[in-house]
Amino acid sequence: MQSESPEQVRSVVAATDTRGKHRISAELKRLEQETRFVEEELELLDKMEKASAACKEMLSNVETRPDPLLPITHGPTNPYWDRWFEGPQDSSGCRCWIL
Q1: What residue ranges carry the coiled-coil annotation (predicted)?
Q2: Domain-by-domain residue ranges, the chain?
């Protein structure tokens, strides 16, 4: 069993250390880039108006405009449909268990 000379050990450590430094450098660059992206996003958020004001404005716009996909009706189209949604006129004569 031969022991390695100190020069061989140093060359192996130097090669390993170089790869470690490169990984650390690459990770550091990635973190710096991510930090820049987050800072830019924070600046954009600071420049935006408050969400509640935008929501109130959108809600008022939606409430004032009729839905283009729904027909505009004033009252029931067929008055006989109302009888299905109303209670019985004379509850004493009604023998249904639901009501």
Answers
A1: 21-48
A2: 1-64
